[in-house]
Design the sequence.
């Protein structure tokens, strides 16, 4: 096989691709669900600071979007996910998880409730096969994969609300976290949800593909006075870690893609027990999760503040500075400019989750390799949770 045999295997373009291409001066790309995705545009740290200090956009067109409707839609989703969908009000968004019958996490995502019997499920990986399996036994239900039919753009950062007001979205400052609102934009319906993956003030914008570029251009015309800039996957990984959000491929393996036994995780192991509602009737994985809850966890995900300023990516964790017993591993790590700390998420044996914990950190300095043992402090709550992230009305900053 030559390179010419693969010439036709090109990555797909998103609805914002022409604008994203213009901004990506470093030509740094990866892929997401077959779509061309920017790793970064100019500089990862610059994009990170745009999210934290001004505002920035992230192309989420590759996200999977499933529209689910019918008299059985609520019951079907309630059996599939671990949270109680019946408690959701119309015009609201809820973060959800779904598991195998063994309680292993398949994926996480969000459910948008548009009406009594009309929902949208979004997630990072294709899930249509699992949705169809979950719909077996329900008669009045329609599942549509509209992943390619909706243009979606995240706008995150403290000046994001000011930009949206500037493009004419009157009253957007009154939107509460996890709420859904519809606006008329240049003759088209624009849906705005106060959601995001940054842990900061932010929104996600949803529009038909024909209006995507006009939306981008208007945002950037108004946003020029508010520091707007696109950000890529690498900056996304930094801001979500500060917020304490989990990421597939880092904190968990998707169960349907995991080969080795127990190399996937359960919601309880990931510290998401608050997402598992044992008060509702049967849902996928309920029995297995209840048994795990009763018997106790062998390992759990924790948050760490690590001494020094050398990020502990892929570090092994020990119970003492001598490294006499291995007790876990770091899943994600960074030096956080916002928190001014060396932070990490880590999977550890439950018996040692309260400490003491030491990380063996390998790093490079002037072409030489070094290692050090660093003391870790266990943290509660997110590393970064500014009041503006939940304040209503939202400020302009």
Sequence:
């Amino acid at each position: 096989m030559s390179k010419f045999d693969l010439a036709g295997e090109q990555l797909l373009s998103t609805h914002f691709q022409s604008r994203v291409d213009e901004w990506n001066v470093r030509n740094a790309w990866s892929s997401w669900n077959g779509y061309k995705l920017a790793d970064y545009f100019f500089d990862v740290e610059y994009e990170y600071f745009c999210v934290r200090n001004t505002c920035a956009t992230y192309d989420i067109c590759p996200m999977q979007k499933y529209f689910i409707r019918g008299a059985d839609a609520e019951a079907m989703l309630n059996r599939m996910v671990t949270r109680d969908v019946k408690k959701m009000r119309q015009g609201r968004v809820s973060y959800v998880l779904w598991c195998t019958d063994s309680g292993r996490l398949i994926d996480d995502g969000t459910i948008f409730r548009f009406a009594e019997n009309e929902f949208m499920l979004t997630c990072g990986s294709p899930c249509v096969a699992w949705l169809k399996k979950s719909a077996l036994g329900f008669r009045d239900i329609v599942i549509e994969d509209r992943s390619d039919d909706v243009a979606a753009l995240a706008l995150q950062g403290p000046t994001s609300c000011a930009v949206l007001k500037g493009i004419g979205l009157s009253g957007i400052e009154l939107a509460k976290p996890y709420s859904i609102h519809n606006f008329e934009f240049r003759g088209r319906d624009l849906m705005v949800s106060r959601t995001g993956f940054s842990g900061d003030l932010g929104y996600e914008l949803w529009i038909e593909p024909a209006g995507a570029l006009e939306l981008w251009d208007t945002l950037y015309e108004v946003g020029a006075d508010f520091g707007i800039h696109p950000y890529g996957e690498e900056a996304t990984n930094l801001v979500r870690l500060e917020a304490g959000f989990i990421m597939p491929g880092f904190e968990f393996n998707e169960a349907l893609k995991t080969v080795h036994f127990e190399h996937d995780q359960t919601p309880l192991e990931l510290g998401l027990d608050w997402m598992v509602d044992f008060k509702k009737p049967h849902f996928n994985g309920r029995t297995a999760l209840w048994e795990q809850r009763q018997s106790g966890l062998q390992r759990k995900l924790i948050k760490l503040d690590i001494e020094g300023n050398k990020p502990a990516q892929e570090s092994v964790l020990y119970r003492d500075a001598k490294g006499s017993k291995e007790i876990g591993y770091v899943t994600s790590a960074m030096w956080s400019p916002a928190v001014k700390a060396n932070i990490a998420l880590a999977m550890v044996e439950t018996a040692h989750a309260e400490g003491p914990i030491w990380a063996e950190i390998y790093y490079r300095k002037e072409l030489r390799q070094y290692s050090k043992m660093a003391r870790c402090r266990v943290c509660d709550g997110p590393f970064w949770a500014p009041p503006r992230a939940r304040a209503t009305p939202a400020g302009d900053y």
User: Anything to note?
Assistant: The two ends are 56 Å apart (CA to CA). The chain has eight helices and 19 strands. The chain has three domains: 9-63+149-243, 64-145, 298-379.
